[in-house]
């Protein structure tokens, strides 16, 4: 990484370098985050500079001309790329620049229409018509194009309205009489076609997965009603099954309290919903972000992006981490008055205190402050100061720009410092499936899950780790879905995974990673029982649960196939249990064959049902770990992840 992109790191180093030994000793004695902010702000006077946004009318015009050239040669994909670049960098601060933006969007809609992307073309037409800055002489073209797109979608009423508007705007077109008559006939013929449509628009099937419609926990709305949360001294808070939950159950589906994109994805994915973007909608003021729709743009501009816009280029260029960006987003998603009221929460009426219950849950998440060393606090405080100074470059604290640290600024700085500590242990990655290079030998396509940002999920943050997790996670936009990849019995803890897996990572490596990264010693069953790695497992050694309900032990069915085995724990003879288990396991093959066939055809939803059936049999008649169980579970995990975010292949088709 180039040195000029290490602004964040250099700031932290410089501010710490200004401290004398007495300063460090005094800082180490501080017990309050706000005091830490105040002290380091006073001692380390290091400035943060604002990076200007990059909008350029001439560059946008050049991209339009390049796009037109590609379009004339029927190089449609490159035409879209150029129009999109022009849209992102086009200023929106004058009538002429807004007109150029409208033309760029209109031109892109023409390309999309030619590619038979009717839904996308309609969205761009609406983008071009926004703010009434589109040249009047092309309005009729846009409405004709919109009408034809709607005809293709069998939307009788909307198509008719579009063609009628096209007819109304013909007078603005300054067409010669022959061309005008041709257009009038085209519109009249299109209106007749619209009137002959029998139905009014094809009703699209509900895209929401039905499994996401489940009864919700009353206190933690993101969780299933059959998931409860407990707490003890050793484990902190954790999730527990209130009843038996079968494999495949969605136990969490929630939106984040905040989410951010990693540096490399700010102009590849929507800043608001995180979805992959190939047809960007631009921010009116900066070229640092893109949006997937006018709705997402407006939501962001009504909230966090209105407060981040002018400082975001500086944040991106600083090379600050995703967690740093999230700590700042936790502030910018609320106005300053919200935090003033939070600071004085005890003085608010009871009815107003309810507005802060959800935020208070975030504020109270684990941060292990009692284990944190003074040097760690010093680094985190320097990080918080950098983010606070970025915020001070905006009008977040009002129109008055000064370097003084008011009580309000100090409090906001202390919140940023606290959030940095919380996010270290509670944030989750945002993921997206992206295509890998085509396998030239097999001709098969494959995908890999890539981290594209981070998010804070209040409910999922309460789940503890196991090296044999109960769930697999995936994102739909910036929402998170957690689905069981093993059945869970009533009263059992529902575990997620913080990274290392018992199947691929040796115990010592897992323990070291979790201790260094999350500050705990893992005591999950695979760690306590020292389960073997997948490659070390004996495929002939099958564990079958004891038939005694109160016994949690098992008997081993090996190559000797001796059915007369006593449970080493309770002594029960498991003859019938072993024979029944072996019989049931023979039926797994048919599920696996069908599931694998669908998997190879990339029919993941269909494959899931077969792999779930196999896993239910394994749950009833075996005890992990063993290789076949792991292979099926991994197939199930892969299929479920394909229900989540995917790279937009619009221009790759």
TrEMBL record:
Q: Which domain of life is it from?
A: Eukaryota
Q: Name one GO biological process term.
A: compound eye photoreceptor development
Molecular function terms from GO: histone deacetylase binding; N-methyltransferase activity; protein methyltransferase activity; S-adenosylmethionine-dependent methyltransferase activity; zinc ion binding
Q: Which UniProt keywords apply?
A: Metal-binding, Methyltransferase, S-adenosyl-L-methionine, Transferase, Zinc, Zinc-finger
Q: Check the record and name the InterPro entries matching this protein.
A: SET-MYND_domain_protein, SET_dom, SET_dom_sf, SMYD4_SET, TPR-like_helical_dom_sf, TPR_rpt, Znf_MYND
SET domain span = 224-499
The record's annotation in SUPFAM superfamilies points to: HIT/MYND zinc finger-like, SET domain, TPR-like
Pfam families linked: SET, zf-MYND
Where are its TM segments located? none
The record's Gene Ontology cellular component field reads: cytoplasm; nucleus
Q: Does the record carry Zinc as a key word?
A: yes
Q: What does this protein do?
A: Protein-lysine N-methyltransferase. Monomethylates PRMT5, modulating its transcriptional activity. May also act as a histone methyltransferase. Plays a critical role in cardiac development. Acts as a key epigenetic regulator of gene expression during cardiac development via its dual activities as a methyltransferase and negative regulator of HDAC1.
- What PANTHER family would the database entry show? SET AND MYND DOMAIN-CONTAINING PROTEIN 4
Full protein name: Protein-lysine N-methyltransferase SMYD4
Q: Which organism is it from?
A: Agrilus planipennis
Gene name of the record: LOC108736887
């Amino acid at each position: 990484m180039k040195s000029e992109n290490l602004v964040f790191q250099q700031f932290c180093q410089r501010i710490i370098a200004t401290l004398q030994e007495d300063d460090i000793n005094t800082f180490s004695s501080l017990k309050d985050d706000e005091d830490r902010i105040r002290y380091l702000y006073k001692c380390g006077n290091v400035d943060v500079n604002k990076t200007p946004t990059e909008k350029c009318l001439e560059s946008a015009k050049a991209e339009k001309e390049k796009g037109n050239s590609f379009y004339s040669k029927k190089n449609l994909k490159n035409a879209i790329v150029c129009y999109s670049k022009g849209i992102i960098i086009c200023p929106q601060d004058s009538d002429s620049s807004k007109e150029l933006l409208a033309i760029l969007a209109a031109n892109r809609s023409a390309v999309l229409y030619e590619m038979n992307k009717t839904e996308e073309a309609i969205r761009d037409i609406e983008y071009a018509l926004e703010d009434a800055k589109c040249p009047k002489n092309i309005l009729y073209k846009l409405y004709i194009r919109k009408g034809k797109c709607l005809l293709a979608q069998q939307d009788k009423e909307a198509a008719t309205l579009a063609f009628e508007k096209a007819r109304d705007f013909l007078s603005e077109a300054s067409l010669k009489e022959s061309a005008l008559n041709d257009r009038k006939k085209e519109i009249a013929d299109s209106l007749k076609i619209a009137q002959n449509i029998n139905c009014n628009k094809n009703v699209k099937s509900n895209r929401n997965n039905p499994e996401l419609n489940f009864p919700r926990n009353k206190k933690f709305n993101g969780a299933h009603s059959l998931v409860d949360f407990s707490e003890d001294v050793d484990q902190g808070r954790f999730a527990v099954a209130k009843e038996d939950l079968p494999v495949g159950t969605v136990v969490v589906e929630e939106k984040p309290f905040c989410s951010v994109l990693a540096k490399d994805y700010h102009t590849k994915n929507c800043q608001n919903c995180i979805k992959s973007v190939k047809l960007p909608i631009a921010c009116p003021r900066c070229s640092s972000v893109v949006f997937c729709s006018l709705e997402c743009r407006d939501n962001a501009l009504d909230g966090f992006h209105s407060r981040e816009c002018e400082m975001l280029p500086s944040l991106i260029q600083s090379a600050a981490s995703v967690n740093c960006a999230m700590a700042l987003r936790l502030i910018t998603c609320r106005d300053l008055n919200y935090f003033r009221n939070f600071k004085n929460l005890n003085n608010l009426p009871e009815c107003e205190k309810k507005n802060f219950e959800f935020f208070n849950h975030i504020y109270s998440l684990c941060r292990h402050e009692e284990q944190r060393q003074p040097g760690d606090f010093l680094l985190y405080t320097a990080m918080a100061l950098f983010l606070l100074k970025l915020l001070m470059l905006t009008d977040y604290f009002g129109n008055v720009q000064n370097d003084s640290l008011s009580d309000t600024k100090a409090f906001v700085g202390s919140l940023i410092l606290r959030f940095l500590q919380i996010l270290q242990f509670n944030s989750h990655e945002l993921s997206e499936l992206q295509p890998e290079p085509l396998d030239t030998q097999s001709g098969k396509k494959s995908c890999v899950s890539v981290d594209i940002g981070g998010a804070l999920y209040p409910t999922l943050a309460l789940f503890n780790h196991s090296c044999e997790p109960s769930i697999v996670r995936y994102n739909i936009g910036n929402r998170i879905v957690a689905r069981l990849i093993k059945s869970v019995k009533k009263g059992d803890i529902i575990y997620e995974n913080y990274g290392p897996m018992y199947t691929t990572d040796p115990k010592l490596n897992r323990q070291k990673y979790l201790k260094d990264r999350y500050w705990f010693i893992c005591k999950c069953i695979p760690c306590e029982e020292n389960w073997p790695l997948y490659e070390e497992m004996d495929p002939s050694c099958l564990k079958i649960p004891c038939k005694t309900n109160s016994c949690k032990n098992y008997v081993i069915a090996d190559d000797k196939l001796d059915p007369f085995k006593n449970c080493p724990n309770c002594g029960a003879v498991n003859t019938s249990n072993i024979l029944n288990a072996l019989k049931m396991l023979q039926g797994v093959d048919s599920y696996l064959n069908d599931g694998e066939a669908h998997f190879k055809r990339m029919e993941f939803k269909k494959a899931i049902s077969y792999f779930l059936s196999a896993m239910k049999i394994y749950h009833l008649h075996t005890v992990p770990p063993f290789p076949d169980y792991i292979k099926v579970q991994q197939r199930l995990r892969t299929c479920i992840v394909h229900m989540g975010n995917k790279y937009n292949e619009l221009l790759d088709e």
